[in-house]
Design a protein that fits this description.
By secondary structure, the protein is mainly beta. The protein contains 1 helix and 10 strands.
């Protein structure tokens, strides 16, 4: 996946309600949501230097991806997350790094299952989706 990072020593958790989290086993890599801001141009005829001024508009929290080894991860739980998305409900995620830094966000995930024709022992599935609201960052203690 584009922009992914190998994930050693960290923990990824999911929750249907944002209160009780369970660990996602077999995580191979993660892509943290990347915030982007729509910048608006401000042009004025009375601008003394005739330079366009920028002003922030709407922010987009982006998308996330979690790649999981199929033999270690529980695709049933991931499919439950997807079922919640299809019913209009969200899933909450926490990505905690070995250093103690943590990202938490609400999302509407979808699952890309392993291809049925794969014969490799290291089959993977991907949980990915759009983030809703601003992700929360907690620095290491």
């Amino acid at each position: 996946m584009a922009g992914d990072k190998e994930f050693f020593g960290g923990v990824v958790r999911r929750s249907p309600d944002g209160l009780t989290f369970t660990e996602i086993r077999g995580v191979k890599g993660v892509k943290i949501p990347e915030l982007s801001i729509d910048m608006k141009d401000r042009k004025s005829l009375d601008s003394p230097d005739r330079v366009v001024r920028k002003r922030p508009g709407w922010a987009d929290p982006g998308e996330f991806e979690i790649t999981v080894y199929d033999d270690e991860g529980d695709i049933d739980e991931a499919m439950d997350d997807q079922a919640r998305t299809l019913s209009g409900a969200s899933t909450f995620y926490e990505i905690e790094f070995k250093s103690g830094k943590k990202w938490a966000f609400e999302s509407f995930p979808l699952v890309t299952p392993p291809a049925p024709s794969e014969v490799d022992e290291d089959l993977e599935f991907t949980i990915k989706g759009a983030v809703s609201g601003l992700p929360e960052f907690t620095p290491a203690a």
